[in-house]
From TrEMBL:
<keyword id="KW-0812">Transmembrane</keyword>
<keyword id="KW-0472">Membrane</keyword>
<feature type="transmembrane region" description="Helical">
    <location>
        <begin position="158"/>
        <end position="175"/>
    </location>
</feature>
<feature type="transmembrane region" description="Helical">
    <location>
        <begin position="57"/>
        <end position="81"/>
    </location>
</feature>
<feature type="transmembrane region" description="Helical">
    <location>
        <begin position="107"/>
        <end position="127"/>
    </location>
</feature>
<dbReference type="GO" id="GO:0016020">
    <property type="term" value="C:membrane"/>
</dbReference>
<protein>
    <submittedName>
        <fullName>Succinate dehydrogenase / fumarate reductase cytochrome b subunit</fullName>
    </submittedName>
</protein>
<dbReference type="InterPro" id="IPR011138">
    <property type="entry name" value="Cytochrome_b-558"/>
</dbReference>
<keyword id="KW-1133">Transmembrane helix</keyword>
<dbReference type="InterPro" id="IPR034804">
    <property type="entry name" value="SQR/QFR_C/D"/>
</dbReference>
<feature type="transmembrane region" description="Helical">
    <location>
        <begin position="12"/>
        <end position="37"/>
    </location>
</feature>
<feature type="transmembrane region" description="Helical">
    <location>
        <begin position="196"/>
        <end position="221"/>
    </location>
</feature>
Length: 222
């Protein structure tokens, strides 16, 4: 067993990152309801949202999710700052582009953009729906909070549509590199396995990027 703090931090980033990747699969699948015709989407989206708020098991998973986001950001910051300290001199000729991808060298920048997105996103939805802050959320004819209408109204604003659609690009980039390196950190070194993981990461990142990017645009034109 190694007690190297860098190994511990990178493992924590990988495990929390993989958990967040699983959350995004569930979150995107649920948000695909928004692509259905209104009469189907409204009851389905609102009862899904009620289940999220009322199921005790999902509440526990939600707390794990918040903890995973905070730990992922915290350890990523520690590792980035440590790497900066270890390499204070920026060499004039370091051929970085030949040795690593742009995404791998800029995970901190991409991660920061995603963090800004998440803060704004939680203010848009979570603060209003879960914390009851801001304008009260109306109820639908089934007595569920009308989360569909909150989403629909937000995506009638072209600025928010552009913001959500554009932020899907750094998200996909971050996920593509993050998933690959997360698996490597957890010990997947075998050449054949790495090729499969690289392909899965690419497909996953495209699905997440396109899915989260397209939904606001489709809702805007609904
Ligand atoms: C089309 C884009 C998206 C839509 C329409 C959307 C919609 C929502 C809604 C309605 C909620 C509140 C759920 C509820 O309590 O009923 C929510 C929560 C949340 N979203 Fe999104 N979301 C989108 C993209 C994203 C992305 C890209 C991320 C992460 C990078 C994200 C992360 C979260 C998180 C962390 C929560 C809090 C979850 C919880 O408390 O259970 N969302 N989203």
């Amino acid at each position: 067993m190694t007690t190297n703090p860098l190994f511990f931090r990178k493992t924590a980033i990988a495990l929390t990152g993989l958990f967040l990747c699983l959350f995004l699969i569930v979150h995107l699948s649920a948000n695909c309801i928004l692509l259905l015709p209104k009469e189907l989407a409204i009851p389905a989206y609102n009862s899904y949202s009620t289940l999220l708020r009322e199921s005790p098991l999902i509440k526990i998973v939600a707390y794990l999710l918040y903890a995973a986001i905070l730990l992922h950001v915290f350890y990523a910051l520690l590792v980035t700052l440590r790497n900066r300290k270890a390499k204070p001199v920026r060499y004039a000729v370091n051929h970085a582009g030949e040795n690593s991808s742009w995404a791998s060298r800029n995970m901190g920048v991409l991660g920061t953009l995603i963090l800004i997105f998440i803060v704004i996103h939680l203010a848009n939805f979570w603060a209003r729906i879960k914390l009851g802050l801001g304008e009260a959320v109306p109820s639908d004819p089934n007595g569920n909070l009308d989360v569909y209408s909150v989403t629909y109204e937000l995506f009638q604003n072209a600025w928010f549509v552009a913001f959500y659609a554009l932020m899907a690009i750094p998200l996909a980039w971050h996920l593509h590199h993050g998933l690959k390196s997360g698996f490597k950190t957890l010990g997947f070194y075998h050449q054949g396995g790495l090729r499969i993981i690289a392909r899965i990461s690419l497909i996953y990142a495209w699905i997440m990027g396109l899915g989260f990017g397209i939904i606001p645009i489709v809702v805007f034109f609904k």
